[in-house]
Amino acid sequence: MNDRQPPFCLSLLPACAAESRYSSMKRSDDPRRARSLRQVWQYLTRRYFWRSRVARSAWIHATASVDRTHPAGIEIGEDVWIGPYAMVLSHDMSRGLYARTVIGARSVIGARAVVMPGVKVGLDCIVAPGCVVSRDIPSGEHIAGNPARIVRSPD
Predict the structure, then answer these.
(1) What is this structure's pTM?
(2) Distances, alpha carbon 18 to alpha carbons 24, 30, 124, in Å
(3) How far apart are alpha carbons 102 and 122 in whole angstroms?
(4) What are the backbone angles phi and psi of residue 101, rounded to the nearest 5°?
(5) Distance (Å, rounded) from C-alpha 104 to C-alpha 129?
(6) H/E stretch holding 127
(7) Where are the beta strands (DSSP E) in 24-125?
(8) Highest mean pLDDT among 9-13, 93-97, 136-140
(9) What would the pLDDT profile of 40-74 be if each residue is shown by its tens digit?
């Protein structure tokens, strides 16, 4: 027996079987996109207990913070990715503000980014890590900085 031979379980699969099987699927239907039990619990809690509008295909990192003081003001679209330690707020206690915060479909919120209350992030936006979003962002923009500024537009 050759000692460079792959393990038995890998030798049973064709080389590109997994790629061809999943290539026509949408990102949200991909069974390889596993969720931890904690993420499933967080989704169910946000959706049914707190009455937030969070799409089933949204991926929220386990350490991300979604507002618990005014959870009904949070709306997260399809295929949104929220990174580690990011914060999505819908209230401001110092001003007594309770506003609706919307994150559009297929947007990405980077690690440690903060989305302030009342902000609408458009479709297909990329929010860079560490960014503080305090104004509405049009669809398709790439933003960075503190405060957030447009880095690249979809031209």
Answers:
(1) 0.69
(2) 11, 11, 27
(3) 8
(4) -110, 125
(5) 18
(6) strand 126-127
(7) 53-54, 59-60, 65-66, 74-76, 81-82, 87-88, 91-92, 97-98, 101-103, 108-109, 114-115, 120-121
(8) 136-140
(9) 787 777 777 777 788 888 888 989 998 888 888 89
**Model pLDDT, residue 9:** 41
Tokens encoding 146: 């503190």
The amino acid sitting at 16 is: C
**Which element (helix H / strand E) includes 43?**
helix 37-44
Structure tokens at 87: 């914060």
What's the average model confidence in pLDDT over 81-110? 91
CB 64 within 8 A of CB 83: yes
Alpha carbon distance, N-terminus to C-terminus of the chain: 57
